[in-house]
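URGENT: need a sanity check before tomorrow's submission.

F., can you look over the Cyclic di-GMP phosphodiesterase response regulator RpfG record below? I want to be sure the sequence and structure line up before it goes out.
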Amino acid sequence: MGHGNLSLSIDQISVGATCSQPIVSDAGVLLVAANTRITQQVITGLRERQIESISVDPRDLGVLSREAKPAQTPKHDRTKPDGHWDPLRPVKDQLVDRHGERLSAQRSAQLDLNVSTAKKAMDKFETLLLTEPIRSVADFAELFESYIDLMVDDLDQTVGAMALKMAVDEASERSLKIAVLGMSVACELGLCGTQVLEVGMVGLLHDAGLRVMDPELLKPLELLTEQQRWEYQKHPLVSGKFVAGVTGVPPNVKMAIEQVHEQFNGSGFPRGVKAQRIHLYARILNVVDAYLQLISANSLRSGILQHDALGLLLYQASRGLFDPQVIRAFLNVESLFPLGSHVELSTGQLAKVIRRPKVGFALPVVETSEGERVDLESSKTQVVRPMSVGNEEPTRLTQEMMESCDWNPASASILV
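Structure tokens as predicted:
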């Protein structure tokens, strides 16, 4: 039991209450993340794990015990009733199979609303960073619960929606993309709902330190002076310090925030740790962050085509730069033709990738510009080449360039 915590029987827990602090077992194992609403499914999951009592922070005892009043309904709109996914079970095991379906307009509207909600929450967070200590991240926890709702309902559409605004360089939107894509990889790796929520929290907050540092540090790494690089590489520690005393942020989230820019081979920063010494959350988000760095434009080049960026990640993983387990999961989520990206078909049609392949990585489900749904696993139609849409011509990488490229996201932006 944690120091100062109190033991509470499972039979005494109040359904509908929301814990402000993490709930752990009497042996100290994390059971429920902070800011989680206690549903009947949560309690059932605890019983299935043969948990008879939990260790709670004294501040939560009155809220969680049955004598307490039920917690207020969260303000955030949800696509389904609370509790339709179990935070203690792997999210991957709870996903609805939508492979044979089209994308939902209602789900698209909810995803747009989530982006708007996240931007407002991040703007508020950035203002507070500059004016007063951060005391709670409850708004973010609620937001990511909604994202797990959407992932469980349709993971492909949720991930694909992140591709729609990839050209936008706003820090708040980039942090959201890292968070949501990281959560999808965490799902693929078999993490439970509580852990997936924590991955999202790390993704959203890992660059908080940059928001209070010199704006010059946001330039491509090649344009920074040696002194500026040294300052830039301290920002994960600044981010970790910001969240250290925040209510509802577990220690493992702080640790992962400080390690997102560490590389699997030890060539990252701020401490140069490697392999399994890097927290799994950080290893997941390191891959996602590198991918977004490649496909995002900067002052020195246009964004790299998504298909080519994924190919480069695979080459770099073979050299030890990324965790191979995470790379495999990322490939399973995105496929060789990432969700939301565009391809030219052998019919001459332009199509958008809307579903991952059932088997392998190369034959996704696409939707043509005429609205025709084509499952490439069962069709004679083939992908001729990846394409881009929009005004900006993306940077292309040939196979030879991928093989010869010596790139490390911790030390340089790729120049082609």
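My own read: The longest strand covers residues 350-355. The CA atoms of residues 178 and 289 lie 6 Å apart. If you see anything odd, call me.
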